[in-house]
Request: fold
Amino acid sequence: MSRPLSLNADRLFPADASVRGVARRLYAEVAGLPIISPHGHTDPEWFATDAPFADATSLLLAPDHYLYRMLYSAGVPMEALGVPTRKGASAADPRAAWRLFASHQHLFRGTPSALWLNHVFAAVFAFEVVLEASTADLYFDRIGERLATPDFRPRALFDRFNIELLATTESPTDDLAHHKAIRESGWAKTSKGRVVTAYRPDPVIDPEHEDFWVSLETFANLSGQDVSFWSGYLEAHRVRRRAFIAAGATSTDHGHPSAATADLAPADAEALYHRILDGVRSKEDAELFRAQMLTEMARMSLDDGLVMQIHPGSFRNHNARLFRTFGRDKGADIPQPTDYVRALKPLLDRFGGEPDLTIILFTLDETAYSRELAPLAGHYPALKLGPAWWFHDSPEGMRRFREQTTETAGFYNTVGFNDDTRAFLSIPARHDVARRVDCGFLARLVAEHRLDETEAAEVAVDLAYNLPKRAYKLDADTPLPSWASA
Reply:
């Protein structure tokens, strides 16, 4: 007998009945708000072509590193899960991969993945029994049938999910053709939401990136600049940033190993760049170059208005064997301690007092919340705190974030929530979790007479909707740079 699947209306709310009642009322204020997803990694091709998704495995399992990293930890080979390799599509049978996934659902008990998946299964596909070995084929077949219908194509789901804005993330070497196709589509003219891009220059900024040299060549070709010179290299960034702004971008994104910044004299920066190009650089040079480029990106953001996001502190591709076979972003990125106070000082000495610059900081090192990040964001006009991220994008991680940052940075030096996901169907679930957790936190403040309920309702709406729009410059009255509006 299969176990029933249902979504409890009070999930994630406080256990205390009186506080839970406040949380319910606060949640009622935000539950129906449109979704602002200003940073993520969904594929713009989905919305450009509106082609139907193929099957449950390729849509829900194979792209989601939260899922297959857990399965891999239990000894399930990645080759059996439909995860593409460097050579291309997986040879695994999609139904067999799904059955394998279904038979290991116990691994996800207590994890945010279980919350997100059950929301998708119940709210999107209307399943009434849980996914397990005995229901694997029922799930695979019903999901496949639904995906073949017009209501489950990417654009229809986008509109159904009440997404007001969705930002994807592309490299400067991307020609942005999919975003052009989206803008020119009839759907873009009728949908209430927008799909935009964000500028992620890591492959042409990180000399230790495996694609650095190939990316530099493409970067030069797309920008029309001679990147063999420091001035030409910087101009290439300006040219590509303008192209991204034309495609709707309001932000950049930087996934560096650390938060290190530098402010070298122009001649020293140029000499460093030529050491990088000459191939005689050291690990210290690679780190210094990344550090200098964060400062250069901040300088450019003051000119063109793009918001900076810094996502540091991940030891990328820790599993060398998986990296050789499957490439990047396959669940083997591991958090490490991150210094912000000293690392950011060169950048902040130069630009920290600029009210027209917005730098959103993220962390995988929770020990930095109250010690470093909240005091920094609670002082420098240019700094804001991004939400609990990646491994901490969970109910307890979100609560820890609020508990450790609010007293020093307040709510209004944070930027609400962004889902940072490749898993398109989980976006409503992730935003729902964030809204519920924030309402629970605010309800506790009301119960302790630290906020009145009217204030708490205003904060709840701001966290869910207004703050991300403001931080990422998505308001209709946000002025464009003069060259962009000319």
